[in-house]
Amino acid sequence: MPDETQQQPQSDDETKQAGPQADQAESQADQAGPQAHQVESQADLAEPQADQAESQADQPESQAGQAEPQADLSESQADLAESQADQAEVEAEDVEEEEAKLPPIVATAEDSGLLKKKVTVTVPRVRIDAKFQEMFGKLSETAQVPGFRIGRAPRRLLEKRFGKEVSEDVRNALIGESLVSALEKAGLEKTIGEPELKLDEIKLPDAGDLSFSFEVEVPPEFDLPQIQGIKVTRPKLAVTDEHIQEYLEQLRQARAHFEVAEGPAAEGDVVVGGAKITVEGLEPVDRPGLTLRVAPGQVEGLPLVDLGKALCGKRAGESASLTIKVPEAHPNEAWRGKNATVDIAVSQVRRRHLPELNEEFATSSGFDSLAELRKYLTQRLEHRLEEEVKQSMRDQVCRYLLDNTKFDVPAGVATRHAVGVLRRRYVDLLHRGAPREKIDENLAQLQAAAAEQSLIDLKLMFIMDKVAEAEEIEVDDAEVNARIADMAAANKRRPERLRQELESDGSMEQVRLSLREEKALDRLLEQAEVTEQAEEAPKPPEGEGQAEAGAAGAEAPEPEPEGEAETSAASGAAPEAAESADEAEAPGKPTERSTKNGEPPEQST
To answer: I need a surface site. Which of 95, 206, 463, 564 has the fewest CB within 10 A?
Structure first.
């Protein structure tokens, strides 16, 4: 008994100790539960991540699998293109072989006037039948004939249904194919302009050969004079105060602004109004919203040499009228050689106001003083002298060639090619940097007397072409691009815009020809016998100051109300310049005095 009594308290102590241990174990069990869930959750999360990683690992393989068919497709397309090219080459060879089997075209040439040949062409019947076979063969593949599937209609039905159209196509194709061949066979590889062909009078015969004739102008045959050792004088030029003052005056003219005037128009003013052009036998043409300088100019490509005289003294509300004979060089063939009346209704007179030539004028141009502006202009004129000297020597060579080369150019030939002469002169004026109003005045006077001047220019063109051939002179695209950039810079224009205008009116070829002639003249100068001339003062290039100040506007130094108008250079009018005289400024002070090819960089204020 005593032992049992002593053991009872010991059991109570153990129980007291076991309680907290059990609670601790339970608490640990409770904590282990969330941890187990967290581990399980992390395991669940890791599983899609593992799947994603596996998927990403598979992507390059999948992309490689997709790239392989694309590569195969590209290779297949390349093979197809190569196959088509080979097929086209084979077809071209087949056509050449078939062409070689056909009897040749016969062409003969005979004189039909001065610098003109009449070419007679005979196309054998076999060639005509072969062309019909070719045309109907192509037609049968696409023609839709009721009652037949495409490609199944018999030839007789095609001839009945489409015979007239196919016959015209055959005639046109045969004529087009035979023209170049006929010129070669007749020994007329070089001609002037396009053949004079009366297409409507050429009929395709039902039987027998096709014969037709056309006329073509040819260059004259002549011998060049001695072109080595031509005697040339090199002028010595010096810039004087008088020429600097003249340059400054041109800058003032370009910087002028215009204000509405109440009085009559005077020389140097501009008038705003509309024009009505009436050409005999044709409907009148109205041209409203024109801005015209009181000076020689153009309206609708018509050279109005007396425009200044007609407008001088006119007030707003009054009108002026001029009558001229439309030159043969006018781009509108329906107007050529006819009498035209230009009635101008004046709605407003604007007077030119020139800025004072003082220190403020110089500083507004970016110079510290008028003396500094004068110094800069002196340097600029001196840099221009070498080009003027070279041009003078080129002119002497041209005069020698004209005086010592004997051949005739009919007036009619020169008249027909007057458009090209005007384009050539326009390109030359652009290259010299002449302002718009000077170009208009020059071309208006030139077009009015186009026949006489065209005769001289066309003769010189023939001579220089022969010189260029003899000296093996060629012009590449890089030289043409450089010349266009120079012309654009001289006229403060964008080269790409000027290129578009030259291409649109057909003057681009004149740029190339002008370059070729210039290179030929320089070659002759290299071989010339040059003597120095006594020193004399130069005359500043006409319009140089105004060109430096900025291009003039449309037909006068203000922009037309309707914006920039497009005018064909073929009519003798220059393409419109974006700048107006209101925007024109004198050359700004150069930030650098470095030069390129001896010419200071163009400056802007």
So the answer is: 206
